[in-house]
Predict the structure.
Amino acid sequence: MLTPAQAETLIEQHLACLPIESLPLTQAAGAVLRENIYAERDQPPFDRVAMDGIALSTAGATTNQGRLRVASMQAAGDPPHTLGDGSSCIEIMTGAMLPQGCDAVVPVEVIDRQGDVAQIADPARKSLTPWQNVHRRGSDCRQGALLLAAGTKLSAPEVAIAAGAGMARVRVSAQPMIVVISTGNELVEPGEVIEPHQVRRSNAYGITASLRQHGFTRVADDHVRDDEADLTERLGFHLRTHDVLILSGGVSMGKLDLVPRVLEKLGVAMVFHHIAQRPGKPMWFGVSQTGPSVFALPGNPVSTLVCLSRYVLPALRAAMGQASTESARIALTAPFEVKAPLAFYLPVKLRSDDWGRTSAEPKPTNGSGDFTALAGTDGFVELPPGPNTFPKGFVARFFRW
Ligand code: AMP
Ligand code: MG
Protein backbone atom coordinates (compact mmCIF):
# COMPACT_ATOMS: atom_id res chain seq x y z
CA MET A 1 0.00 0.00 0.00
CA LEU A 2 1.13 3.56 -0.72
CA THR A 3 2.48 5.82 1.99
CA PRO A 4 0.86 9.27 2.27
CA ALA A 5 3.99 10.83 0.72
CA GLN A 6 3.83 8.44 -2.26
CA ALA A 7 0.13 9.18 -2.74
CA GLU A 8 0.87 12.91 -2.62
CA THR A 9 3.59 12.53 -5.28
CA LEU A 10 1.33 10.49 -7.55
CA ILE A 11 -1.40 13.12 -7.35
CA GLU A 12 1.11 15.87 -8.17
CA GLN A 13 2.40 13.92 -11.18
CA HIS A 14 -1.09 13.43 -12.61
CA LEU A 15 -2.50 16.88 -12.09
CA ALA A 16 -2.76 19.31 -14.99
CA CYS A 17 -2.05 22.98 -14.43
CA LEU A 18 -5.18 25.11 -14.76
CA PRO A 19 -5.46 27.60 -17.64
CA ILE A 20 -4.55 31.27 -17.25
CA GLU A 21 -7.09 34.08 -17.24
CA SER A 22 -6.67 37.83 -17.05
CA LEU A 23 -8.55 39.51 -14.19
CA PRO A 24 -9.05 43.16 -13.33
CA LEU A 25 -7.06 43.90 -10.19
CA THR A 26 -10.23 44.53 -8.18
CA GLN A 27 -11.17 40.86 -8.64
CA ALA A 28 -7.74 39.37 -8.08
CA ALA A 29 -7.69 38.95 -4.29
CA GLY A 30 -6.95 35.31 -3.45
CA ALA A 31 -5.93 34.42 -7.00
CA VAL A 32 -2.60 32.83 -7.88
CA LEU A 33 -0.35 34.90 -10.10
CA ARG A 34 0.84 33.27 -13.33
CA GLU A 35 3.19 36.03 -14.46
CA ASN A 36 6.07 37.92 -12.87
CA ILE A 37 5.46 41.53 -11.94
CA TYR A 38 8.34 43.99 -12.18
CA ALA A 39 8.74 47.51 -10.81
CA GLU A 40 7.39 50.02 -13.32
CA ARG A 41 9.65 52.78 -11.95
CA ASP A 42 12.14 53.32 -9.15
CA GLN A 43 10.40 53.15 -5.78
CA PRO A 44 9.93 55.85 -4.60
CA PRO A 45 9.86 57.22 -8.15
CA PHE A 46 11.35 60.56 -6.98
CA ASP A 47 12.88 62.04 -3.82
CA ARG A 48 9.64 61.92 -1.85
CA VAL A 49 8.87 64.37 0.94
CA ALA A 50 8.03 62.33 4.05
CA MET A 51 6.65 65.07 6.36
CA ASP A 52 4.46 68.15 6.06
CA GLY A 53 6.70 71.18 6.63
CA ILE A 54 9.25 73.21 4.68
CA ALA A 55 11.76 72.07 2.09
CA LEU A 56 15.08 73.87 2.22
CA SER A 57 18.77 73.73 1.51
CA THR A 58 20.58 72.65 4.71
CA ALA A 59 23.58 74.83 3.82
CA GLY A 60 21.32 77.90 3.29
CA ALA A 61 19.29 77.32 6.45
CA THR A 62 22.42 76.98 8.59
CA THR A 63 23.83 80.27 7.23
CA ASN A 64 20.52 82.03 7.97
CA GLN A 65 20.17 80.78 11.60
CA GLY A 66 17.09 78.87 10.53
CA ARG A 67 15.16 81.98 9.52
CA LEU A 68 13.78 81.54 6.00
CA ARG A 69 11.38 83.26 3.68
CA VAL A 70 8.55 81.02 2.45
CA ALA A 71 8.73 81.49 -1.31
CA SER A 72 5.90 79.19 -2.44
CA MET A 73 3.73 76.21 -1.56
CA GLN A 74 4.02 72.84 -3.29
CA ALA A 75 1.44 70.08 -2.69
CA ALA A 76 1.69 66.35 -3.45
CA GLY A 77 1.11 65.91 -7.16
CA ASP A 78 2.45 69.36 -8.10
CA PRO A 79 5.41 69.47 -10.47
CA PRO A 80 8.52 70.39 -8.46
CA HIS A 81 9.23 74.04 -7.66
CA THR A 82 12.78 75.41 -7.67
CA LEU A 83 14.34 77.01 -4.61
CA GLY A 84 15.47 80.53 -5.50
CA ASP A 85 18.25 80.92 -2.95
CA GLY A 86 19.45 79.53 0.39
CA SER A 87 17.65 82.16 2.45
CA SER A 88 14.24 80.92 1.36
CA CYS A 89 12.26 77.71 1.66
CA ILE A 90 9.19 76.10 0.09
CA GLU A 91 6.17 75.05 2.11
CA ILE A 92 5.75 71.38 1.30
CA MET A 93 3.32 68.48 1.81
CA THR A 94 3.92 64.78 2.43
CA GLY A 95 4.11 62.89 -0.83
CA ALA A 96 5.37 65.85 -2.86
CA MET A 97 8.49 65.65 -4.99
CA LEU A 98 11.41 67.37 -3.23
CA PRO A 99 11.77 70.81 -4.91
CA GLN A 100 14.89 71.44 -6.96
CA GLY A 101 17.70 73.01 -4.94
CA CYS A 102 16.42 71.49 -1.66
CA ASP A 103 18.05 68.67 0.26
CA ALA A 104 15.97 68.36 3.45
CA VAL A 105 12.54 68.80 4.99
CA VAL A 106 11.83 70.31 8.42
CA PRO A 107 8.48 69.31 9.87
CA VAL A 108 5.78 71.86 10.59
CA GLU A 109 5.81 70.90 14.29
CA VAL A 110 9.21 72.61 14.88
CA ILE A 111 8.53 75.74 12.83
CA ASP A 112 7.30 79.11 14.05
CA ARG A 113 5.55 80.72 11.11
CA GLN A 114 4.95 84.51 11.00
CA GLY A 115 3.46 85.61 7.67
CA ASP A 116 5.90 84.53 4.96
CA VAL A 117 8.76 83.96 7.39
CA ALA A 118 9.47 80.53 8.90
CA GLN A 119 11.76 80.20 11.94
CA ILE A 120 13.07 76.72 12.72
CA ALA A 121 13.18 76.00 16.48
CA ASP A 122 16.72 75.81 17.88
CA PRO A 123 17.15 72.11 18.56
CA ALA A 124 15.81 71.25 15.12
CA ARG A 125 18.07 73.82 13.49
CA LYS A 126 21.16 72.42 15.25
CA SER A 127 20.38 68.85 14.25
CA LEU A 128 19.62 69.73 10.62
CA THR A 129 21.09 67.05 8.30
CA PRO A 130 20.94 66.60 4.54
CA TRP A 131 18.16 64.28 3.31
CA GLN A 132 16.28 64.31 6.60
CA ASN A 133 12.60 63.47 6.08
CA VAL A 134 13.25 62.67 2.44
CA HIS A 135 12.49 59.16 1.14
CA ARG A 136 15.19 58.94 -1.52
CA ARG A 137 14.35 57.91 -5.06
CA GLY A 138 14.95 54.19 -5.65
CA SER A 139 15.79 53.51 -1.99
CA ASP A 140 13.08 50.81 -1.75
CA CYS A 141 13.65 49.19 -5.13
CA ARG A 142 14.87 49.90 -8.63
CA GLN A 143 12.88 50.06 -11.85
CA GLY A 144 12.68 46.56 -13.35
CA ALA A 145 13.19 44.76 -10.05
CA LEU A 146 11.14 41.56 -9.61
CA LEU A 147 8.36 42.45 -7.17
CA LEU A 148 6.05 39.42 -7.39
CA ALA A 149 6.95 36.04 -8.85
CA ALA A 150 4.53 33.74 -10.69
CA GLY A 151 3.03 31.35 -8.14
CA THR A 152 2.38 34.07 -5.57
CA LYS A 153 -1.05 34.06 -3.97
CA LEU A 154 -2.42 37.58 -4.06
CA SER A 155 -3.48 39.01 -0.74
CA ALA A 156 -3.77 42.67 0.23
CA PRO A 157 -0.05 43.64 0.04
CA GLU A 158 0.48 41.85 -3.28
CA VAL A 159 -2.60 43.47 -4.85
CA ALA A 160 -1.32 46.87 -3.70
CA ILE A 161 2.13 46.08 -5.14
CA ALA A 162 0.62 45.09 -8.49
CA ALA A 163 -1.38 48.34 -8.54
CA GLY A 164 1.80 50.24 -7.67
CA ALA A 165 3.50 48.60 -10.65
CA GLY A 166 0.78 49.98 -12.91
CA MET A 167 -1.00 46.68 -13.60
CA ALA A 168 -4.71 47.23 -14.31
CA ARG A 169 -5.18 43.51 -14.94
CA VAL A 170 -3.15 40.50 -13.87
CA ARG A 171 -2.72 37.05 -15.36
CA VAL A 172 -3.79 34.48 -12.80
CA SER A 173 -4.92 30.85 -12.67
CA ALA A 174 -8.50 30.30 -13.72
CA GLN A 175 -10.66 28.92 -10.93
CA PRO A 176 -11.25 25.20 -11.40
CA MET A 177 -14.84 24.06 -11.93
CA ILE A 178 -15.30 21.75 -8.96
CA VAL A 179 -18.24 19.51 -8.14
CA VAL A 180 -18.73 17.92 -4.74
CA ILE A 181 -20.71 14.68 -4.99
CA SER A 182 -21.96 12.69 -2.02
CA THR A 183 -23.11 9.11 -2.44
CA GLY A 184 -25.28 6.90 -0.25
CA ASN A 185 -28.90 5.74 0.02
CA GLU A 186 -28.95 6.53 3.73
CA LEU A 187 -28.27 10.25 3.40
CA VAL A 188 -30.86 12.95 4.02
CA GLU A 189 -30.51 16.67 3.41
CA PRO A 190 -30.45 19.00 6.47
CA GLY A 191 -33.91 20.54 6.83
CA GLU A 192 -35.71 17.45 5.56
CA VAL A 193 -37.58 14.92 7.72
CA ILE A 194 -35.27 12.10 8.79
CA GLU A 195 -36.13 8.50 9.74
CA PRO A 196 -34.32 6.62 12.52
CA HIS A 197 -32.34 4.51 10.02
CA GLN A 198 -31.14 7.50 8.00
CA VAL A 199 -28.11 9.78 8.28
CA ARG A 200 -27.68 13.49 7.64
CA ARG A 201 -25.80 14.41 4.49
CA SER A 202 -23.02 16.36 6.21
CA ASN A 203 -19.88 15.62 4.15
CA ALA A 204 -20.82 17.65 1.11
CA TYR A 205 -21.42 20.67 3.35
CA GLY A 206 -18.06 20.23 5.08
CA ILE A 207 -16.21 19.84 1.78
CA THR A 208 -17.91 22.83 0.19
CA ALA A 209 -17.23 24.98 3.26
CA SER A 210 -13.56 24.07 3.15
CA LEU A 211 -13.28 24.83 -0.56
CA ARG A 212 -14.96 28.21 -0.16
CA GLN A 213 -12.84 29.02 2.87
CA HIS A 214 -9.73 28.30 0.78
CA GLY A 215 -10.80 30.63 -2.00
CA PHE A 216 -12.40 28.23 -4.49
CA THR A 217 -15.51 29.89 -5.85
CA ARG A 218 -16.79 27.64 -8.63
CA VAL A 219 -18.15 24.81 -6.52
CA ALA A 220 -21.24 22.82 -7.49
CA ASP A 221 -22.91 20.15 -5.38
CA ASP A 222 -24.76 16.91 -6.16
CA HIS A 223 -25.95 13.75 -4.48
CA VAL A 224 -26.25 10.32 -6.08
CA ARG A 225 -27.77 7.11 -4.70
CA ASP A 226 -25.79 3.86 -4.58
CA ASP A 227 -27.21 2.78 -7.90
CA GLU A 228 -24.98 1.84 -10.80
CA ALA A 229 -27.19 3.37 -13.50
CA ASP A 230 -27.68 6.63 -11.58
CA LEU A 231 -23.99 6.86 -10.75
CA THR A 232 -22.98 6.23 -14.35
CA GLU A 233 -25.34 8.88 -15.64
CA ARG A 234 -24.50 11.58 -13.03
CA LEU A 235 -20.74 11.00 -12.91
CA GLY A 236 -20.66 10.93 -16.71
CA PHE A 237 -22.35 14.33 -16.75
CA HIS A 238 -19.99 15.80 -14.15
CA LEU A 239 -16.92 14.50 -16.01
CA ARG A 240 -18.09 16.41 -19.07
CA THR A 241 -18.78 19.65 -17.19
CA HIS A 242 -16.13 19.98 -14.43
CA ASP A 243 -12.36 20.03 -13.94
CA VAL A 244 -12.33 18.35 -10.55
CA LEU A 245 -14.76 15.86 -9.00
CA ILE A 246 -14.67 15.38 -5.22
CA LEU A 247 -16.76 12.40 -4.17
CA SER A 248 -17.49 11.07 -0.73
CA GLY A 249 -18.53 7.54 0.10
CA GLY A 250 -18.82 4.39 -1.93
CA VAL A 251 -15.11 3.54 -2.17
CA SER A 252 -14.84 0.80 0.49
CA MET A 253 -15.28 -2.95 0.08
CA GLY A 254 -19.07 -3.16 0.44
CA LYS A 255 -21.33 -4.57 -2.25
CA LEU A 256 -22.79 -1.09 -2.83
CA ASP A 257 -19.43 0.69 -2.91
CA LEU A 258 -19.74 1.19 -6.65
CA VAL A 259 -17.74 4.35 -7.20
CA PRO A 260 -14.37 2.92 -8.38
CA ARG A 261 -16.02 0.51 -10.81
CA VAL A 262 -18.31 3.16 -12.31
CA LEU A 263 -15.47 5.67 -12.66
CA GLU A 264 -13.27 3.18 -14.49
CA LYS A 265 -16.15 2.26 -16.74
CA LEU A 266 -16.46 5.98 -17.57
CA GLY A 267 -12.80 6.16 -18.65
CA VAL A 268 -11.29 7.51 -15.44
CA ALA A 269 -7.98 5.70 -15.04
CA MET A 270 -7.24 4.75 -11.46
CA VAL A 271 -3.97 6.15 -10.15
CA PHE A 272 -4.33 4.58 -6.71
CA HIS A 273 -6.86 3.02 -4.37
CA HIS A 274 -5.93 2.78 -0.65
CA ILE A 275 -3.26 4.62 1.30
CA ALA A 276 -1.57 3.21 4.42
CA GLN A 277 -3.26 5.67 6.73
CA ARG A 278 -5.97 5.95 9.35
CA PRO A 279 -8.48 7.38 8.94
CA GLY A 280 -8.99 7.51 5.18
CA LYS A 281 -7.44 4.23 3.99
CA PRO A 282 -9.91 3.58 1.12
CA MET A 283 -9.21 6.86 -0.70
CA TRP A 284 -9.28 6.51 -4.50
CA PHE A 285 -7.74 8.88 -7.05
CA GLY A 286 -7.92 8.83 -10.82
CA VAL A 287 -7.67 10.96 -13.93
CA SER A 288 -10.13 10.95 -16.81
CA GLN A 289 -8.90 10.53 -20.39
CA THR A 290 -10.76 13.76 -21.10
CA GLY A 291 -8.92 15.74 -18.42
CA PRO A 292 -10.81 16.00 -15.13
CA SER A 293 -9.28 14.57 -11.95
CA VAL A 294 -11.37 12.61 -9.51
CA PHE A 295 -10.80 12.43 -5.78
CA ALA A 296 -13.07 9.77 -4.32
CA LEU A 297 -12.89 10.14 -0.56
CA PRO A 298 -14.10 7.63 2.00
CA GLY A 299 -17.53 8.49 3.40
CA ASN A 300 -16.79 8.44 7.10
CA PRO A 301 -16.93 12.13 7.95
CA VAL A 302 -13.56 12.39 9.73
CA SER A 303 -11.88 10.49 6.87
CA THR A 304 -13.50 12.77 4.32
CA LEU A 305 -12.26 15.99 5.89
CA VAL A 306 -8.80 14.59 6.65
CA CYS A 307 -8.32 13.38 3.05
CA LEU A 308 -9.60 16.69 1.73
CA SER A 309 -7.06 18.76 3.70
CA ARG A 310 -4.24 16.23 3.36
CA TYR A 311 -4.49 15.64 -0.41
CA VAL A 312 -7.17 17.59 -2.25
CA LEU A 313 -6.46 21.15 -1.07
CA PRO A 314 -2.68 20.88 -1.71
CA ALA A 315 -3.41 19.36 -5.13
CA LEU A 316 -5.78 22.19 -6.02
CA ARG A 317 -3.19 24.74 -4.90
CA ALA A 318 -0.56 23.05 -7.08
CA ALA A 319 -2.97 22.99 -10.05
CA MET A 320 -3.43 26.73 -9.57
CA GLY A 321 0.35 27.08 -9.88
CA GLN A 322 0.76 28.21 -6.29
CA ALA A 323 4.35 27.97 -5.10
CA SER A 324 4.42 25.24 -2.45
CA THR A 325 5.23 26.41 1.02
CA GLU A 326 7.08 24.45 3.66
CA SER A 327 4.42 22.61 5.66
CA ALA A 328 4.18 23.55 9.32
CA ARG A 329 5.68 21.25 11.93
CA ILE A 330 4.30 21.37 15.44
CA ALA A 331 5.09 19.67 18.76
CA LEU A 332 2.50 17.63 20.68
CA THR A 333 1.45 18.92 24.12
CA ALA A 334 0.84 15.34 25.32
CA PRO A 335 2.00 11.83 24.41
CA PHE A 336 -0.11 9.84 21.95
CA GLU A 337 -0.17 6.14 21.17
CA VAL A 338 -0.57 4.90 17.58
CA LYS A 339 -1.43 1.20 17.56
CA ALA A 340 -1.78 0.24 13.88
CA PRO A 341 1.08 0.10 11.35
CA LEU A 342 -0.51 2.96 9.41
CA ALA A 343 0.19 6.70 9.31
CA PHE A 344 -2.19 8.27 11.81
CA TYR A 345 -4.03 11.57 11.48
CA LEU A 346 -4.63 13.05 14.90
CA PRO A 347 -6.96 16.07 15.17
CA VAL A 348 -5.41 18.83 17.26
CA LYS A 349 -6.15 22.19 18.76
CA LEU A 350 -3.33 24.74 18.54
CA ARG A 351 -2.16 26.23 21.81
CA SER A 352 0.22 29.13 22.49
CA ASP A 353 2.45 29.13 25.55
CA ASP A 354 3.63 32.24 27.45
CA TRP A 355 6.51 32.65 24.96
CA GLY A 356 4.15 32.60 22.00
CA ARG A 357 5.32 29.13 20.91
CA THR A 358 2.57 27.10 19.26
CA SER A 359 1.99 23.46 20.05
CA ALA A 360 -0.68 20.91 19.22
CA GLU A 361 -3.07 19.51 21.79
CA PRO A 362 -4.33 16.04 20.75
CA LYS A 363 -8.11 15.88 20.30
CA PRO A 364 -8.63 12.26 19.27
CA THR A 365 -12.02 11.27 17.91
CA ASN A 366 -14.02 8.20 18.79
CA GLY A 367 -13.25 6.65 15.40
CA SER A 368 -13.64 7.96 11.88
CA GLY A 369 -17.40 8.48 12.20
CA ASP A 370 -17.06 10.81 15.21
CA PHE A 371 -16.95 14.17 13.49
CA THR A 372 -18.64 15.99 16.38
CA ALA A 373 -15.28 15.69 18.20
CA LEU A 374 -13.73 17.94 15.53
CA ALA A 375 -15.52 21.06 16.79
CA GLY A 376 -12.93 23.66 17.79
CA THR A 377 -9.97 21.77 16.31
CA ASP A 378 -7.62 23.62 13.94
CA GLY A 379 -6.51 20.68 11.85
CA PHE A 380 -4.52 17.50 12.40
CA VAL A 381 -0.99 16.21 12.62
CA GLU A 382 0.39 13.27 10.64
CA LEU A 383 2.04 10.70 12.89
CA PRO A 384 4.29 7.95 11.46
CA PRO A 385 2.99 4.37 11.42
CA GLY A 386 2.83 2.54 14.76
CA PRO A 387 2.93 0.68 16.96
CA ASN A 388 4.58 3.53 18.85
CA THR A 389 3.93 6.00 21.61
CA PHE A 390 4.90 9.46 20.44
CA PRO A 391 6.09 11.49 23.44
CA LYS A 392 5.05 14.96 24.48
CA GLY A 393 7.14 17.38 22.36
CA PHE A 394 7.16 15.04 19.34
CA VAL A 395 7.24 17.27 16.25
CA ALA A 396 4.81 16.29 13.48
CA ARG A 397 3.60 17.76 10.21
CA PHE A 398 0.50 19.90 10.70
CA PHE A 399 -2.39 20.30 8.25
CA ARG A 400 -5.00 22.97 8.76
CA TRP A 401 -8.68 22.25 8.04
P1 AMP B 1 -19.14 4.71 2.77
O1 AMP B 1 -17.74 5.19 2.54
O2 AMP B 1 -20.07 5.08 1.70
O3 AMP B 1 -19.15 3.24 3.09
O4 AMP B 1 -19.64 5.46 4.07
C1 AMP B 1 -19.02 5.23 5.32
C2 AMP B 1 -19.82 5.86 6.41
O5 AMP B 1 -19.85 7.26 6.21
C3 AMP B 1 -21.25 5.41 6.49
O6 AMP B 1 -21.61 5.30 7.85
C4 AMP B 1 -22.02 6.53 5.83
O7 AMP B 1 -23.33 6.63 6.30
C5 AMP B 1 -21.19 7.73 6.19
N1 AMP B 1 -21.33 8.75 5.17
C6 AMP B 1 -21.10 8.58 3.86
N2 AMP B 1 -21.31 9.72 3.19
C7 AMP B 1 -21.68 10.64 4.10
C8 AMP B 1 -22.05 12.00 4.03
N3 AMP B 1 -22.07 12.67 2.85
N4 AMP B 1 -22.37 12.63 5.17
C9 AMP B 1 -22.33 11.97 6.33
N5 AMP B 1 -22.00 10.70 6.46
C10 AMP B 1 -21.68 10.02 5.37
MG1 MG C 1 -21.95 4.66 1.14
